[in-house]
Amino acid sequence: MRHPTHHVEQNEQDPDHRGDRNSKEHSGGFLGWIGLSPEPPQPTLQEYQRLKDTVFRLDKDLKWYETQTKEKDIKLKQKDIELKEKDIELEDLKKTLCMYDACAEADIIKKVDSINTTTSKFLRDTARSWVKSASKVPEELVTVVVPDDDLQHLREVIGTSLFKALMVARLEKATAAYNILQFAWQASIVAVVTKVLGSFSAGLAASPEGSAIDKTLQMISVEVMKREVQPAYGRWRFLTYRHSRGIVPEEQAIEIYVNDAMKTCRTAGQVLLKNRCPAPAAFATVFEPKLKDIIRHAFQLLTDIQESMMTTNFEPYVPPSGIPFEPKNMDVNPQDKTDYAGDVVVCVTGVGLLYSRKNGRERTNEVPMKDVFKKPKVLTEANLKDIVA
Questions:
Q1: Could you report the per-residue pLDDT of 12-29, keeping only the tens digit for each?
Q2: Coil, helix or strand for 331?
Q3: How many helices (H) does the chain have, and how many strands (E)?
Q4: Residues near 343 by Cβ (< 8 Å), separated by ≥ 6?
Q5: pLDDT given at position 1
Q6: How far apart are CA 288 and CA 261, in angstroms?
Q7: How far apart are CA 377 and CA 347, in angstroms?
Q8: How confident is the model over 62-85, as a mean pLDDT?
Q9: Which residues, at least 6 apart from 26, have a Cβ–Cβ distance to it below 8 Å?
Q10: Burial letters for 124-148: b for 16+ Cβ neighbours within 10 Å, e otherwise?
């Protein structure tokens, strides 16, 4: 018989058998030897409890976050409701503000009409009376010398065509004479009223020193208008105007404008009436009270525009002499015609206004478009020829 240990020793010494055994041990035993993966190790009781606790904690956190999300959603919906209510309130405020503006706009139209009516009625009656009286007085051989500077200023204010008509007018043609004189006076006064309305602060603009400050304020005003929403610009204009208004006494400034208008009117009177034009003191007695009333109304109109109009802007509209007449943007006197082809403007005889505004919260960095709010009255070339004829 063979000894069993001999077989064992033989196997241990056999490299092939030793390799097979080692490969079985390293490949996971029998399952690895036949090509199957071994089963993963089962978690211990402690690991299982730890995983269970983690799942419980995550589930609890998830429920907390869901609760927080629901609360946030509820608050967000409440904020949306509040925002919509604020939007409705804002729209109501805008409508109310525009309604106030609409009321103020009606007042502005009334004041412009009042200035124009007062001016035209006073000048018509005065021109008719003075021309009628002067035509009855024999002309004296006395040459009235009017300074060239005054004549040049008059020409610039009333336009070359009306200036020439004034120079050649004769008192014998009374109707033509007083119409020409009336229009020359109207253009002279409207020019001063326009100067008041075209300033930022009429009190500042009255003097040469203050005029430079006023021009600076106007430039700043344009920049603020371009860069701010309309209500913000209106508020800035209101506060700045109210402060600048107190720098120069209003009555003092009114006196300056009255003297300016009276000087131009008297020059026109001297050109037509010559030596029969009233002396400076007599002229002032008639003109000064009425001119003060007109200029004071212009100051009040400017204050209304600068302080009351938060959502709108106004400025004087002065069609320059020589441009084509446009019936949609200009008016003529009731007795004048508007159907002349190719007719052109001679001068402005009634105050007109332009209107502009920015809508909503637009920031266009541009000056808003301007529309004609109140048509200015003008004298046209064709109608002047009818008067002269």
A1: 444 444 444 444 444 445
A2: strand
A3: 13, 5
A4: 324, 325, 380, 381, 382, 383
A5: 42
A6: 9
A7: 9
A8: 89
A9: 32
A10: bebbbebbeebbeeeeeeeeeeeee
